[in-house]
What does this fold into?
Amino acid sequence: MLRLVIQRGLLALATLVLVSLVIFGATEVLPGDVASAILGREATPARLAALRAELGLDQPAPSRYFEWLGGAVRGDFGRSLARPAAPVGPLIAERMRVTGWLALIATLIGVPLALGLGISAGLLRDHPADLAISVVALVAQSVPEFVIGALLILAFGITWPILPAVTVVSSDAPLAALAPNLVLPAATLVIVMTAYVLRMVRGSLIDVLDSEYIHMATLKGLPHRRVIAAHALPNALLPTINAVALTVAWLIGGVVVVETVFNLPGVGRLMVSAVEDRDLPLVQALGLLGAACYIGINLLADLATLWLSPRLRARQR
It folds into this structure.
């Protein structure tokens, strides 16, 4: 198992380095000039040259990449170009607090709800309850996040104004002031992620229930509850670990659409403003941190799957 952990860890590290190259290269080929965007109408050849030298833009791209990557390893992502004297790291950490709470609430509610509904639908296959759950999940999965968010705003922010329709507090507001503003965004994410994971759990459980070893266990006279609890559920839930991990990584990375709809001052909104301002250090840092979260969570899910499945572990060897 240790050898597999080392192999998967090295693969994840290599993937992150490759992603860093893609992020840096993508920002390099963006049209326009950062120095010109910062100076605006005050741009003159002399001032442009001085600013490019100050920002290190006059250095070759490989040198700037290795300098940026080395700083990222140390936790130093440089300073924001659009927010003078603002280090990128603390700026992201402040916004990550909001996105982190949003992702945590959505995960703690959405994952158990999806597992419960998916197991119920799988056990009640072709029952009216299964049909109702499946139809609602399919509709929820088909509707874009911004539409679900707009409907929740219309219902609970305008028709019955019991919750804030949009966020008006800052990212450093106390949790007590921030909490009411997280309810509708979290509900939007719960609806989306529940629909996706629910369908995965239902399909996996139905496949397991149709397998030969489940039929054999039933023919041997094992109680139905024991067959479900000891044989069907463990094997059905194992493939859904990666689906849950993908969903959680999507949440932690910052949901741009949901945060934009509710004006939530999280990482997603910060990314939008950074792109609009051509704040390349901030865009690069957000892209790299999002990729690191995504790769890290999937690595943990992969290792958990290997640890829980001796057969798969033996096959990997």
